[in-house]
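During the no-cost extension, the postdoctoral fellow (Dr. R.K.) reprocessed legacy sequence entries with the updated structure-token encoder. One reprocessed record is reproduced below for audit purposes.
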Amino acid sequence: MYADKFKIDLVKLMNRLWGENFFNAKTKKWAKQKDNDNKRSFCMYVLDPIYKVFDAIMNFKKEEIDGLLTKIGVTIKHEDADKDGKALLKVVMRSWLPAGEALLQMIAIHLPSPVVAQKYRMEMLYEGPHDDEAAIGIKSCDPEAPLMMYVSKMVPTSDKGRFYAFGRVFSGKVVTGQKARIMGPNFQPGKKEDLYEKTIQRTILMMGRYVEAIEDVPCGNICGLVGVDQFLVKTGTITTFKNAHNMKVMKFSVSPVVRVAVEPKNPADLPKLVEGLKRLAKSDPMVQCINEESGEHIVAGAGELHLEICLKDLEEDHACIPIKKSDPVVSYRETVSEESDQMCLSKSPNKHNRLFMKAQPMPEGLPEDIDDGKVNPRDDFKTRARYLTDKYEYDVTEARKIWCFGPEGTGPNIMVDCSKGVQYLNEIKDSVVAGFQWAAKEGVMAEENLRGVRFNIYDVTLHTDAIHRGGGQIIPTTRRCLYACLLTAQPRLMEPVYLCEIQCPEVAVGGIYGVLNRRRGHVFEESQVAGTPMFVVKAYLPVNESFGFTADLRSNTGGQAFPQCVFDHWQILPGDPCEPGSKPYVVVQETRKRKGLKEGLPDLSQYLDKL
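Re-encoded structure tokens follow.
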């Protein structure tokens, strides 16, 4: 636009618009230093026109808008002529400076190619040794190396119930008809669990809405595979290298904390619903479909809107049946706030084995470190112990004797062996770990997952005969003992909290505070977007209070506030769940009732034995 106007070479003008270049509009001269009568060229020729367009449209300056649009060469279509405010701004910017073209150019210019990026990303991507064939192939992005491909999601095909496995080839090449090892996220090298050796039926390139069949795809490219969907649920690694380890599983910044129970309107359609839930779980990497022991089918998503879209897909595309939905409910976590006030003893059913344990809360920040993978079961135990000692002041001897993490073997709870010289202890380790995983997945208060709890084993008395200390004796005893530890350590409930970012004009800020205060939210930052009349308010909002939040906010701000919510952290729900009438007590009772558990609070005498 400017090159045509000033009759200047495009490349020369581009160089002038960036960096320390200042233009004096009166003398029409360029300078390298800032003076009173000149202005930075980028501000003058790029930012100022954009700001003028924003200012005129958002402040409804009708007489200015037409002149500006003529200058920048934007013609408004007849159907958009009546729009104003944000709606008009979107139309103008799409026509004048479409974001898609600019973003694609910036990606091509600035982001590193796979050949460059994989040199330094291999260590973050690959779980195996960094000097094996697969690692070297990934690092050098070598098309002649063994195939290493990570499938990141499943994309539904036009053929009902089938999916393309969509992912990136990191080394080697993937070929139609090639035999490969398909490794799910639970695969462990040397074992056959979650491992399949199958043929890749077809290789395809995905071009927007269309797919193109292709013979082979070399490393550095993204492609889809046909015939893999029946062996992988959501993600996995595909390789031709026999000793390959898995690629690291993707971590999401959000967590599926909002749950809905679903059932078919016609009970005869139950098999279709079950099949539809399997397809939904495949198609969305974030969603979780759970079958509760009570027989309920639960769909868990990141928020109200995410769930709404998932349930619409389930009803219309995956199950194709009318379904009934419960009101959305929130997942909670169980934790403790003090160390157990007594040594907890539980005896095995045959009364020949005894476990002595205590529970205590983890230091603040450790559960998050475990979630982020900074502390995990795969770490070298000495390195992990040093980290825990330096950062959280754990005793180094105890930190070396962490038996396991849970639930699922990776969760933010740990079991530590603090015993001294106990006979046969290692023989019951697997049974104790199994009991711990059970208790960590289903806590004592409401059978919700535990979070931020450390269990210490202080002493064990075992029968000398191995047959009397088997899994049947030790696993339920461990669970009972852990439940007793929780009940004697001031149990608490934790609720998920959204980080809520709200954009609005200054006049609407007061309405936001009112809505947030009613919903137990609190604002921690408020700032104005430079050069615009818009304010950005950042607040924490409990997920349980977020249902209907957007509609409530719009009605209290005249539709001028635009919220965006993303899961941020867990916080303790104020109050004691053992105290009738408190908020956590009500939540526990509602959850127990929903899950079909015995009403009332669990009694300590059920789990704590006397010597």
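Residues 103 and 197 are 40 Å apart (CA to CA). The mean pLDDT is 85. The remaining legacy entries will be reprocessed before the final report is submitted.
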